[in-house]
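Anyone opening a protein record will find just a pair of labelled lines. A complete record is shown below as an example.
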Amino acid sequence: MTTQHGLIIEKPGAPFKVVDSLERPTPGSKQALVKSLFVAINPVEEYMSKTGAITTEMPAVLGSDFCGLVVQDGPGCNKLQTGDYVFGLCRLGRNQFSPFQETFLVDEDLVFRKDGRIEPEAAAGVGLGVLTSALGIVVGGKKPLPHHGMKIAEHDEWIVVLGGSGTVGHYAVQIARLCGYKVAASCSPRKSESVLQRGANATFNNRSPVTDQAAEIKAITDGHFSLIFDTSALCHGVAREAFKHSTAAEKYFSTTDTVTEFQTGSDVNEYRVITSLLGREDVRSRHVTAEVAKMVPLLEAHIADGTITPVEYELHAGVGWEILAKAIAQYEAGKVEKKLVVRVQEG
């Protein structure tokens, strides 16, 4: 058995620990083995490490977003070959697929091949945000994502993005615009300009009371919206009030909230974005996996051309697994304002 270095937790709540005894995985059908180069830190790592949720075994290798180099392609792997750079979101909570180790597995249909203008450091922070946004808008909101190069006439309709300044909001605004919709996004007043620069047509204050936000949505859209996407997982109350003013025959609410019980209206189609289902085997997970596989080629082309741009990031100083452990501690202490990316190995 070939072993390798990586970062693990031995049990929920335990500190991260560097080890050299992890089994090097072997790619199966339509899979590739990837050398981890850059990883980005997201809230899901803290959630998994503190609670053990999503993980399938202990000790656990964690991670979510990555950019790496294909070092071995498995049987039937046609899209990827040795030497390709890839990025995306791993199968969360599955040790062999997690990027906090020297090499890990990817499914060729579920990752992006790096091409075009995006740098590997920036690519490392794309996967979770762009797939969450695409699931919320394209799948949950029934808004078709156009092929790269298609000219889409702007609809006389809005998409409302609750939480427009975060990572998911960053991609949600861009995807909504690509789909041909105007965007009204909530954010703090100090972040309004940056949200408008990334493509939103209008912003409103997410610090205002629920009824005031609903009134602002009505004033901006005149009720011409069918989809509200709550990227923050906190704003179903705003959505419930806002939908009272919607003129749409079919209404859709997508949210990153995976646990809270809520009701946005008897006539509203509700969809929870659960990226942790990616690559799992139950019926709901297979649906999510199939939808992601359909969207990956479209998103990949937009990212390569720059019609979807990466979120701003901060590259942590240093290289290695001990550096990653320090970066995670810095992230959990709230000392990071941008997407935090760590180089774990040299290319």
Notes: The first helix runs from residue 43 to 51.
